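At this stage, I put together a protein sequence along with its fold in token form, as given directly below:
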Amino acid sequence: MVNISKTKRNFIGLHTLFAILSAAIGAVILHFALPGHYFGGYPFIPVYFYLFGLFSIYMFDACRLHAPQRMLLLYLAIKMVKMILSIILVLIYCLAVREEAKAFLLTFISFYLIYLIFETWFFFSFEVNRKLKKKNKKKNETVA
């Protein structure tokens, strides 16, 4: 059996569900609400954000095990890397496929913001739960 933490398993499960739902909803919106705006590069966007999310959770898990005091620094570094890599990818795509540039850019920015909110919510709730558990553990130790 592969050793995987509960938090990592929860994030991967929620992240996978979120990726499937956001990709499907995005495709439906582009096909029906904005007919004619679906573009060939659309599937790349949800896949990019899904893979980057998996990379992030593996990095956070490794940091949690080996250098927990650097978790905030890693969080900020990953956000910067994601932003820089996203800008590079958007520029390359928009230069390579000019006729789809506007639709791609607007869709990519929408996914970027949606994933930013999702990941922030997940890690914020994770930190709140971690602090509550730590507080309860200290409380139980002083009672015993």
